[in-house]
Design brief:
The complex is a heterodimer of chains A (572) and B (164). Chain A has 21 helices and 20 strands. With 572 residues, chain A is an alpha/beta fold. Chain A folds into three domains: 169 residues, Rossmann fold, CATH 3.40.50; 166 residues, 3-Layer(aba) Sandwich (Rossmann fold); 171 residues, Rossmann fold, CATH 3.40.50. Chain A has a six-stranded parallel beta sheet with strand order 3-2-4-5-7-6, sandwiched between helices. In chain A, helix 3 packs across helix 17 and helix 15 packs across helix 21. Classes of the chains: A alpha/beta (572), B alpha+beta (164).
Chain lengths: 572, 164
């Protein structure tokens, strides 16, 4: 007599949740517990495959998950409770949406029978997050939980990546069901394009090879699409000048002479001038953001434009494009390299030499020069020293403002995924939690958070998380006692009326760091900058908060003022 | 230019608000929007009438296609198509002459009187929006109590079809 097959046992929704994370290969979740997610936390407690990192505020959880994703190219995962847990997470979700970060955020929800009753800690999470997610789900039946989680990871990580929110009512985590994780998912309404159209690729190459004054303009899509290798090969094959957006830094080696630096509002003179006078603009994984284009009416007046992007909605959104190619940038670039090799045609070397001669003249303006002899610490000098002492190989996160621009200008990124900042949403407070996420992804890497005295205070509570998990982050605080970028605009455009931009009543950051159990240093003399950085970098197992007292009057140059074209930069 | 965009979308809670939210978030116009389940109960069909330059319409269709719940989309304006709207009008017809005139106008416009009370008629009329407008113009001498219009729905002529 044969034995009857063992009946598969039903497990709770909370256990299904944990099993799904394990199936997805998630090794770390950033979160904060609360009433609606208690079953889930209990299930996490009873296993040891998925680590949970306890942050001090839900915003920190989502930003840390972003930092983890941006540095490792894996999907970040955050877990928050209902109501305020979810609303605190919204800034991080919106940040991830603007910068296309692959993220799955799980939120607890009140039990299904109480939804809509204004229950304790109830908000309409799906409604609140709808405009700032790639997609979101409310799971109303435990039988749908595993498939929904599978879909969430699939949607978050494919095509143009983005955040996906999964809202799970408490009763769903208590109900039981047999666990079965779908190995593959097909969605009839979601089918992102991968390969580019062959005809369009050939058309683009013909235009690219006909160029007399070409430039490659590449963005965050190169980093997200893991295409920096293909891009570097393509750019070197052509010998064309290349510029990166703020989000694209590290996509092409900054130390390569073909690299013109960052473009845009605080980009280099040579990059912006080359953009203005180019006849063929090759845009790859970039979205023609207003901080890049300046006045759209004056943007690239002489150029035919090729645009490669995985998101068709990014093409011809702000600027009309001549040859669009929809596809993942990596396979498209690989195919372009193959096509290029099989074509007989070569770039016009004579025209290219003349173009490079012109670019070198622009470059000779040395638009990033600053006073190296100043008796007060110049913020640019601090970043430059950080770059030198870390051999350009640290993971650098930043907050938002002047220090962000100086980090982008003076830390020369040769590799992708080393530069982690908030480009689209411009979220102050991201720097420290980004650094935490990156340090968890790469425990042995040097992770530096370049920040300012205003930004750092927006998520300062995470210093406590850093102590709990022994994260040896180096915080480089460029402390000018001002909301520097606001002050700069008030100086330029509001006749020096510094409304609310002075940071009064600052804490003693050294004591603050020490009270959290970290090392604090205050550096006031230019001659002490290098020594302090060396000392901090040598402390491999401690978080060091370096409070640099910098020049209050320093501005970020060069600059394209609002309404101006890329050829109308203000230089120092 | 005026465009009629038809979409098939997952018949799920929240799908409608994803579409309407997209229009308000990005500042696109909605002239009318109708939605109902199709013969396949897992799908809804939505018809949106919108206005905008060619660039805006291109962005609208791209952004709609990007929504995960949108399965298929067609801009009917780019094809030979039929559009229809339905209207119900409640008018005062207290006097015999009014009742006669109302019946005559309804026949001319090939409508139907679908409700009769002591003093009122409800007229049902289907057609192009401009035909419905004309009917309302023709009712100038009547006291119109209530007008309800369905919004536009449309379908392509011939072989072109919006289906899975």
């Amino acid at each position: 007599m044969s034995e009857s097959p063992a009946k598969p046992t039903a497990i709770t929704g909370a256990e299904i949740f944990v099993r799904c994370l394990q199936e997805e290969g998630v090794d770390i979740v950033f979160g904060y517990p609360g009433g609606a997610v208690l079953h889930i936390y209990d299930a996490l407690y009873r296993q040891d495959k998925v680590a949970h990192i306890l942050v001090r505020h839900e915003q920190g959880a989502v930003h840390a998950a972003e930092g983890y994703a941006k540095s490792s190219n894996k999907c970040g995962v955050a877990l928050v409770t209902s109501g305020p847990g979810a609303t605190n997470a919204v800034t991080g979700i919106a940040d991830a949406y603007m910068d296309s970060v692959p993220l799955v955020v799980f939120s607890g929800q009140v039990p299904t029978n109480m939804i809509g009753n204004d229950a304790f800690q109830e908000v309409d999470t799906v409604g609140i997050t709808r405009p700032c997610v790639k997609h979101n789900f409310l799971v109303k039946d435990v039988a749908d939980l595993a498939t929904t989680i599978k879909k969430a990871f699939y949607v978050a990580t494919t095509g143009r990546p983005g955040p996906v929110v999964v809202d799970i009512p408490k009763d769903v985590t208590a109900q039981t069901c047999v666990f079965e994780y779908p190995q593959q998912i097909k969605m009839r309404s979601y089918n992102p394009t991968t390969r580019g159209h062959g005809g369009q690729i050939r058309k683009a190459l013909e235009l690219i090879l006909s160029a007399k004054k070409p430039i490659l303009y590449t963005g965050g899509g190169i980093i997200l699409g893991q295409a920096s290798g293909a891009l570097t090969e393509f750019a070197r094959k052509l010998g064309y000048p290349i510029t990166n957006t703020l989000m694209g830094l590290g996509g092409f080696p900054a130390s390569d002479p073909q690299f013109l630096g960052m473009l845009g509002m605080h980009g280099t003179y040579e990059a912006n001038m080359a953009m203005h006078y180019t006849d063929v603009l090759i845009a790859i994984g970039a979205r023609f953001d207003d901080r890049v284009t300046g006045n759209i009416e004056k943007f690239c007046p002489y150029a035919k434009i090729v645009h490669i992007d995985v998101d068709p909605a990014s093409i011809s959104k702000n600027v009309k494009v001549d040859v669009p190619i929809v596809g993942q940038v990596e396979p498209v670039l690989r195919e372009m390299i193959r096509e290029l090799e099989s074509m007989k045609q070569e770039p016009d070397q004579e025209a290219l030499a003349a173009w490079w001669k012109q670019i070198e003249e622009w470059r000779a303006k040395d638009c990033l020069k600053f006073d190296h002899e100043s008796p007060i610490i110049k913020p640019q000098m601090v970043v430059q020293k950080l770059w030198e002492l870390t051999g350009g190989d640290a993971i650098v996160t930043s907050d938002v403002g002047q220090h962000q621009m100086w980090a982008a200008q003076f830390y020369r990124f040769d590799k992708p995924n080393r530069w982690i900042n908030s480009g689209g949403l411009g979220t102050m407070g991201v720097g420290l939690p980004f650094a935490m996420g990156a340090q968890f992804a790469f425990p042995d890497a040097t992770v530096a958070c370049v920040t300012g005295e205003a930004s750092i205070q927006m998520c300062i509570q995470e210093l406590s998380t850093c102590l709990q998990y022994q994260l040896p982050i180096k915080i480089v605080n460029l402390n000018n006692r001002y909301l520097g970028m606001v002050r700069q605009w008030q100086e330029f455009f509001y006749q020096g009326r510094y409304a609310m931009s002075y940071m009064d009543a600052l804490p003693d950051f050294v004591k603050l760091a020490e009270s959290y159990g970290h090392v604090g240093m205050r550096i006031e003399q230019p001659g002490d900058v290098e020594g302090a950085l060396r000392e901090a970098l040598a402390m491999k197992d401690r978080l060091v908060f370096l409070d640099f007292i910098t020049d209050q009057t320093e501005n970020v140059y060069p600059m394209i003022p609002a309404g101006a074209g890329q050829n109308e930069m203000i230089l120092v | 230019m005026r465009h009629i965009i038809s979409l098939l979308l997952e018949n799920e809670a929240g799908a409608l608000s994803r579409v309407s939210g997209l229009f308000s978030a990005r500042g696109y116009n909605i002239e009318s929007l109708t939605v109902a389940p199709t013969d396949d109960p897992s799908l809804s069909r939505m018809t949106i009438v919108t206005n905008g330059s060619e660039e805006i319409i291109e962005q609208i269709t791209k952004q709609l296609n990007k929504l995960i719940d949108v399965v298929r989309l067609i801009d009917l304006t780019l094809h030979r198509h039929i559009e229809r709207e339905m209207m119900m009008v409640k008018i005062k017809v207290a006097e015999a002459a009014q009742r006669e005139e109302a019946k005559r106008l309804t026949d001319i416009f090939r409508g139907n009187i679908i409700d009769v009370s002591q003093d009122t008629y409800v007229v049902e009329l289907t057609g192009h929006g401009s035909k419905l407008d004309s009917f309302l113009d023709a009712l100038q001498d009547f006291s119109v109590m209530e007008v309800v219009r369905s919004g536009v729905m449309g379908i392509a002529r011939g072989e072109v079809a919006l289906h899975l």
